[in-house]
């Protein structure tokens, strides 16, 4: 069995990356979400969490010992140097977690889902890039419905992400997700059948 080639799946907040990834997973494709890997590396008992507590104090934890992401987010949005410190701590751990998972993938190709695929440079480690794209106004409506964040917080998150047209320049394939779920599923199936014909993603 040859090693799975890796498809990078990205898109702005609220574009439907997760829905697309789930549709690929239902077709038997191994997928790993960089955001999930980022959560695993700060689980209670993992060394990264201890270092975060040492830096920000016990107030950074919830009652059950889990990381309080909302409090952490406030710290890192307010002070850029705290964000740099956190990224320097977590990025190598997240990378290792992702590599390990992708190396063990059993499907013909595997998917790395990452909102910051391009911004973080992760796109250099994948063989092909699929951008899930929606108009910005759809993005805002969906993300506000789903994430229970203020519009201001949402705009701040969108600021850290690449502009839509810039992201599209990195795409080998674009999945337009402005319609309904059935349309998304059809598009995923069409791409999946195409991907199965590719050698090493090319």
From TrEMBL:
<dbReference type="GO" id="GO:0005524">
    <property type="term" value="F:ATP binding"/>
</dbReference>
<comment type="similarity">
    <text>Belongs to the CoaE family.</text>
</comment>
<keyword id="KW-0173">Coenzyme A biosynthesis</keyword>
<keyword id="KW-0547">Nucleotide-binding</keyword>
<keyword id="KW-0808">Transferase</keyword>
<protein>
    <recommendedName>
        <fullName>Dephospho-CoA kinase</fullName>
        <ecNumber>2.7.1.24</ecNumber>
    </recommendedName>
</protein>
<dbReference type="InterPro" id="IPR027417">
    <property type="entry name" value="P-loop_NTPase"/>
</dbReference>
<comment type="function">
    <text>Catalyzes the phosphorylation of the 3'-hydroxyl group of dephosphocoenzyme A to form coenzyme A.</text>
</comment>
<dbReference type="InterPro" id="IPR001977">
    <property type="entry name" value="Depp_CoAkinase"/>
</dbReference>
<feature type="binding site">
    <location>
        <begin position="14"/>
        <end position="19"/>
    </location>
    <ligand>
        <name>ATP</name>
    </ligand>
</feature>
<comment type="pathway">
    <text>Cofactor biosynthesis; coenzyme A biosynthesis; CoA from (R)-pantothenate: step 5/5.</text>
</comment>
<dbReference type="GO" id="GO:0005737">
    <property type="term" value="C:cytoplasm"/>
</dbReference>
<dbReference type="Pfam" id="PF01121">
    <property type="entry name" value="CoaE"/>
</dbReference>
<dbReference type="GO" id="GO:0004140">
    <property type="term" value="F:dephospho-CoA kinase activity"/>
</dbReference>
<keyword id="KW-0418">Kinase</keyword>
<keyword id="KW-0963">Cytoplasm</keyword>
<keyword id="KW-0067">ATP-binding</keyword>
<dbReference type="GO" id="GO:0015937">
    <property type="term" value="P:coenzyme A biosynthetic process"/>
</dbReference>
């Amino acid at each position: 069995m040859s090693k799975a080639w890796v498809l990078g799946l990205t898109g702005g907040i609220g574009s439907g990356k997760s829905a697309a990834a789930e549709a690929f997973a239902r077709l038997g494709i191994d997928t790993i979400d960089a955001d999930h890997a980022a959560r695993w590396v700060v689980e209670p008992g993992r060394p990264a969490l201890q270092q975060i507590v040492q830096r920000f104090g016990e107030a950074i934890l919830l009652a059950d010992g889990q990381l309080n992401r909302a409090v952490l987010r406030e710290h890192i949005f307010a002070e850029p140097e705290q964000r740099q410190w956190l990224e320097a701590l977590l990025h190598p751990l997240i990378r290792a977690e992702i590599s390990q998972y992708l190396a063990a993938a059993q499907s013909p190709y595997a998917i790395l889902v990452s909102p910051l695929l391009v911004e973080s440079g992760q796109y250099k480690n994948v063989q092909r890039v699929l951008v899930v794209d929606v108009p910005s106004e759809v993005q805002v409506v969906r993300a506000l419905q789903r994430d229970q964040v203020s519009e201001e917080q949402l705009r701040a998150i969108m600021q850290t992400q690449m502009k839509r047209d810039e992201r599209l320049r990195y795409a080998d394939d674009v999945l337009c997700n402005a319609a309904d779920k059935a349309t998304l599923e059809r598009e995923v199936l069409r791409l999946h059948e195409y991907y199965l014909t590719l050698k090493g993603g090319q």
